[in-house]
Predict the structure of Thiolase family protein.
Amino acid sequence: MSARDVYIVGAGMHAFGRHPGVTGMDMGEHALRAALVDAGLEWSDIDAAVGGSNVSGKPDSLVSRLGLTGIAFTTVKNGCATGGVALSTAADMLTAGRANVVAVVGFDKHERGAFGSDPAAYGLGQWYARTGMMVTTQYFAMKTQRYLHQYGIERTALAAVAERAFANGAAHPMAWRRTPLTAQQVLDAATVNDPLTQYMFCSPGEGGVALILARGDRAHDLCDKPIRLAAVEVRTRRFGSFEVFSPWLHTDPVNSPSIDAAAAAFDAAGVHPADVGVAQLQDTDSGSELIHMAETGLCRHGEQAKLLDSGATRHDGELPINTDGGCLAGGEPIGASGLRQVHEVVRQLQGRAEGHQVPDQPEIGFTHVYGAPGLSACTVLTV
């Protein structure tokens, strides 16, 4: 163990869902206080902090609630990848020796309905909005339709992803959607954008997650079973890659940011995708999970349906994916979503998951988050 190694020594979460009368800032505070308790620390013990929120305020404002200690507090905002970028920023503080213990927090409280954005905020003209592609459900449906056609995958695979997600969510106390659905119920639901039905999409939601990170020379003093952040890598899109809010599409798809971020994370951690014992993948919709299974190297393109049919991606299968229900069952409060993934994998590796516990004590976990305008963050976590 090196002092430059980074470990997660505490984790806290506010349940995802709809919480009338509770602000996004309230949920961030709740999660951060829970993470401090988990690590056995006080706010005054924290050297620095990083926070992310898309629409619910400035995370650094939380110092007025937790304590005016003069702490360095960095705020980030990177779409659905906000949590991953916040984690990467915190890890860099530790490896650079700028801090010994760092808190990371993400939270959001979104209105009902699909995410909508102003194209000007992404450097695009209003013509792009008139194509309908600023409505994310249309983008993800188009990408999924193309992918299913290209690799000969049936639409039933999309329903299988959702069925498993809702089954996992039903068992997890922090998930929003707690009612299991059959694959047929998912297929029979109202179509939003072909081929995706209502229950194949996640919903904008509310929630908060926080993590406490420490350098290697402090970690085992703070936690009985700290989890090593073996790698965290962030990548943006390349030219021609078909990504959300990107006005181009190459006839032959090139590397996506998910491919690049995952490959970099596995390389930095010195492990192979086949070594992963539990994984969290961005599932804005069922199609996105299918695509990300292959883009991150967890399977080959076109193998997803076979894995789903065999039960391999269940919590007790060979490759457990989204064991807490993912975005489909949890919803997506943007600032918290990427940190939720890490929170779940940490709990799984520690053997104290709140929902379905992966059997046989997995030792290597992986997380992948993806956001606009074509940005991915991936982590590798080890016991």
User: Anything to note?
Assistant: The mean pLDDT is 94.
